[in-house]
Amino acid sequence: MTRTTLDLWVGIFVVAGFAALTVLALKVGNLSTYNTSETYQLQAYFSNIGGLKSQASIKSSGVLIGRVAKISLDSERFEAKVTMLIDKRYQFPKDTFANILTSGLLGEQYIGLMPGGDEAFLKAGDEIKKTQSAMVLEDLIGKFLYSKAEDSN
Description:
single chain; about 150 residues; alpha/beta; 2 domains; 8 strands; flat
């Protein structure tokens, strides 16, 4: 095998390695499963978002329908304001519930949308009124220990 052939094969393997690392980074970042079609924006307010982050998934019935665009603190309501970008192909009734859920026991957090039965649909810029905050494991453990301490008295 000549030196140029060997260099060519090494170059091919290096490029393949970089391509594999890029695919892995996209999978870990959960960015490869969402297309960039047209979206519309919705807002929701939560008293506790737990570990929810920007670019977190928004799912309905387990199907990825959007991403969290921005998370900020509303200084008037003192609640977390979550701005969501939803794929235009998916329309939801005005009485839709937005829940912060966790994949598995200690997995990533995402927003789950449960459609209601209203005939009117949410439009761009609307607010989802019915929300359920994240379940924080430390709070649950604290409540359990507090109730056990009260029972012993």
